[in-house]
Specification:
It comes from Shouchella lonarensis. Radical SAM enzyme that catalyzes the cyclization of dehypoxanthine futalosine (DHFL) into cyclic dehypoxanthine futalosine (CDHFL), a step in the biosynthesis of menaquinone (MK, vitamin K2). One of its GO terms (molecular function) is transferase activity, transferring alkyl or aryl (other than methyl) groups. InterPro entries: Aldolase_TIM, CofH/MnqC-like_C, Cyclic_DHFL_synthase_mqnC, Elp3/MiaA/NifB-like_rSAM, F420, FO_synthase_su2, rSAM, rSAM_sf. The structure is a single chain. By secondary structure, the protein is of the alpha/beta class. It has a single domain, classed as TIM Barrel, CATH 3.20.20.70. The protein is built from 16 helices and 10 strands. The strands form 3 sheets. Strands 8-1-9-10 form a 4-stranded mixed beta sheet. α2 runs antiparallel to α11, α6 crosses α7 and α6 packs across α9. It starts with a helix and ends with a helix. About 5% of the residues have low confidence.
């Protein structure tokens, strides 16, 4: 079957197979992939609107006993450069976010074996008492599994306790590539692919949702990438647990994988497009300007992405790998418009809060506040 035939079927609404996905990865016709992904995105989102959320990353601890070879952020338990942020400092960071119209806190850290469940529940309760409107999109499957291990609890019970304390949804960090072949090579101690999926499915059982992620550039095969997408699609078919999909490239600098050649922006755009074509059951695709930079982030809006992600007031994990791109609200609006789209602020549930439709005075006032 030709690439053109596979793309035509996908645009027509037919579900493509893993074998089809491998053929798309083997193709160098990035323009055709982008056009098909863009056409599929427009079936989901008919208006030329690109959304974004005003949020902050809070990395509450860098102590971690998982020791992923691709991470430059973590410090082993007991290391002199390790930390656990004081609760008052976390409250201060959230207050700063709320003050500029922020709605989302993405709080993630290492798998810290010294933090028990009550650390998390007390922190979440304290946050919600002070900031009842802030959405806590926080903790990854690996962190949840670590709490479960420390407390001898099930993942579902941990998530239920966290949700009752104030956790609203869970980001999909740590998926990387959902095959044991790659995971055993680059993150042997991390949760397995099945465990990551189990945690994401459990979010739905306790009344929350999550996001799906993918990182390429570990030397994985095209077949492994296709299997990753298949597992995400199957989990979504089963539970509907994902509101969005986000992919990015491995940033190998300053990590144990610095020997690997960093993939190109074309590799990123191709992966975004193929993911949008394959994942026919996830509505929202988020650009990864944090790793790719604003210009490629802008270009991804024509390769299947309908969302520009978070303004990300703070970011430490990717920055530790010597990849730092900053985008404020003003630049976000500019980049979205340069892509020929209308910018709109959203919340974590992808509900539109405000459309920036050309009211220059109101927009100027908003930007000055942010």
């Amino acid at each position: 079957m030709t690439i053109a035939h596979i793309l035509a079927r996908a645009v027509n609404g037919d579900r493509i197979s893993m074998a089809d996905a491998v053929k798309l990865y083997e193709s160098n016709d990035i323009d055709a992939l982008g056009q098909a992904a863009d056409a599929i995105m427009k079936k989901w989102h008919r208006d030329p609107i690109t959304t974004f959320v005003i949020g902050r990353n809070v990395n509450y601890t860098n102590f971690c006993d998982t020791y992923c070879s691709f991470c430059a952020f973590y410090r082993p338990p007991g290391h002199k450069d390790g930390y656990v942020l004081d609760n008052e400092l976390i409250y201060k960071k959230i207050a700063e976010t709320v003050a500029v119209g922020g709605t989302e806190i993405l709080m993630q850290g290492g798998t810290n074996p010294n933090l028990k469940l009550d650390y998390y529940t007390n922190l979440l309760t304290g946050i919600k008492e002070r900031f009842p409107s802030i959405w806590m999109h926080s903790f990854s499957p690996a962190e949840i599994w670590k709490i479960a291990e420390v407390m001898n609890m099930t993942v579902e019970d941990v998530l239920r306790a966290l949700h009752e304390a104030g956790l609203d949804s869970m980001p999909g960090g740590g998926a990387e590539i959902l095959t044991e072949e790659t995971r055993l090579r680059v993150s042997r101690l991390k949760v397995t692919a099945d465990e990551w999926l189990e945690a994401m499915k459990a979010t739905k059982k306790v009344g929350m949702f999550g996001t799906a992620t993918m990182v390429i550039g570990f030397g994985e095969s095209f077949e492994e990438r296709a299997l990753h997408l298949q597992r995400i699609r199957d989990a979504q078919d089963e539970t509907g647990c994902f509101t969005a999909f986000i992919s990015w490239l491995l940033q190998p600098e300053n990590t144990g994988l610095k020997r690997l050649k960093k993939l190109s922006s074309e590799d990123y755009l191709k992966n975004v497009a193929i993911s949008r074509i394959f994942l026919d059951n996830i509505a929202n695709f988020q650009s990864s300007w944090v790793t790719m930079g604003p210009e490629i982030g802008k270009k991804s809006l024509h390769f299947g992405c309908n969302d520009f992600g978070s303004t990300m007031m703070e970011e430490n994990v990717v920055s530790a790998a010597n990849t730092t791109h900053k985008v404020n609200t003003n630049l976000t609006l500019q980049l979205i418009r340069e892509a020929g789209k209308v910018p709109a602020q959203r919340n974590t549930k992808y509900e539109t809060l405000r459309v920036f439709d050309g009211d220059t005075k109101a927009e100027k006032d908003f930007v000055m506040q942010n």
